[in-house]
Write a structure and sequence with these properties.
Shape: flat
Structural class: alpha/beta
CATH topology of the largest domain: 60s Ribosomal Protein L30, Chain: A
Helix content: 25-40%
CATH superfamily of the largest domain: OmpA-like domain
Number of helices: 16
Radius of gyration: 51 Å
Number of strands: 26
Length: 637
Amino acid sequence: MRLSSIVVIGGTFFVAALLAVIAAGFSAGVIEKGSKTEVRRALDLADIGWAEVDADGLQVFIAGTAPTEASRFKAISVAGGVVDSTRVIDQMQVEDAAEIAPPRFSLEILRNDAGVSLIGLIPADADSEALFETVERVAEGASVTDFIDRADYPIPDGWNEAVRYAGSKLDKLPRAKISIEAGRVSFTATTDSPREKRELEAELSRRVPRGIRVVTDISAPRPVITPFTLRFLIEDGAARFDACSADTEKARREILAAAREAGASGDADCTIGLGVPTPHWSEAARLGIEAVSNLGGGTITFSDADISLVAPEGADQALFDDVVGTLETELPEVFALHAVLPPPPTDAEPVVPEFVATLSPEGLVQMRGRVGSEKLRQTVDSFARARFSSDGVYIKARVVEGLPSDWPVRVLAGLEALSYLTNGAVTVTPETIKIHGDTGNKEASAKIAGFFSETLSESAQYDIEVRYKEALDPIAALPTPEECIRRLNLITAERKINFEPGSDTFDASGADIMNDIAELLKQCGEINIEIGGHTDSQGREVMNEQLSEDRAMAVLEALRARRVITSNITAVGYGESQPIADNETEEGREANRRIEFKLLEPEATAERETGLESLEQDSEEESEEASGQNGTEDEQN
């Protein structure tokens, strides 16, 4: 009995232990699988797909190759946020870091009268002894300053060859900077003359090692040119320089380009030097060369800021005046021009001075000829700019002496008369003033004659040939109201005003169409116009009527925004009530959606009695009333 009890108790404990082991194993498997799954999900969410996850009981293993140390640490941190960090076992590796790129090696050798300096970074294993020996020898006891750093990296290809080549040329460069890189040597130096510059450039280009690129920047001081001179001439059709100076390479190119344009040969050259009187030298030279070319010959000479222009013998006087006037106007202020026209043969007719101003249909005014002084030329220019568009006035009149005393009055009177015309010309001579051209003012001819009579002397002669043209008359050229409406509807027929569907907003082309309509209405003047809006029959009638009115108002507002007077313009919406096509087809509905312009006739009003008519009627009524009263009194009497 006792043995049986012991067996039962022992069996119970055994079964309990077995169940505990089974339960523990099952729990460990669940924890292991859950940890692996959760850590894998967390790593994926953190975009760490390169990591591998495994679990053994409570331990979680992270394996794989991390791209960087930071990536490895991030994987451990993410896993530690899911399970206890003490359970995370790191089995990751990190990719080898890329080799660090070698530095950019360079060496500069600076040499002047004080000595030699070496600055830069060179490879630690570079053979630089030969260079230092050369530097010590060239310095000849002067100071040698070493600011060189060294780096333990492989020697790049072409480095040693570049250093040896630079050292071989150092004794040729008493004042220079030599920049050395692998496969490249740059020389920057100064010489005492252009000849020495050419010789040094030739020397530096000799015995250059294969694979080495040489760059030279050699400068030479420019000579001082006193006076700064340029002389250009055209004789017998051949153009050439007797002397040419320029202050910069750019100025030299501009002067030679102007000379080639005037006919000079391609081998012409200019000396670049110091002493230019103004930075505008090349501009003045170009203008002077063009003047000689326009004259067809002659000579122009610059001596600092003094210019002498000699025209060819027999040159036309009017052409000479035009060319000289243009040159005087366009030359920079510092320059002074003296122009000479050789006198014509003695049997030639005397030259009559004149002043001519022309007015183009576009409003451009050009003045040429002669004025008596620089002050008068400025006055004429200001007067013309006040009478005409200042941007369209150009004067090239020449200043000469010996003109008649009333010349300023005659010139200004001619310009005033020209302002009455739309286009034309006025010519002023000592004997007469001639004006001819077209105008849109019927009274222009009479006004010009009256103005001349009041302004000029009684003996002054003038010739007026002014033609009235109705097309130029701003009033006569206005379209009639009927023509305005026809042209408005023609615009909308050719380029229909469209709106966005169900809206009063213009489509993309609406702005341009409204601009053209506004310009036409500004020409039409104040006429009574109705803007009618129309729709198709789709939708409710009330909504269509409101939409058509909104669209007509949108047109009215667009005109008002373009500064069109709209006090005499009304906007009406007709909706679908006035179709012009079949609403059963898409083409018909498109035609019915429209804007129309209509001329409104003034309303008839009953004639009102004038004050005089009212007084006469009242007087007659009073007379009749008085007569009636007298008759009654007679009867009573």
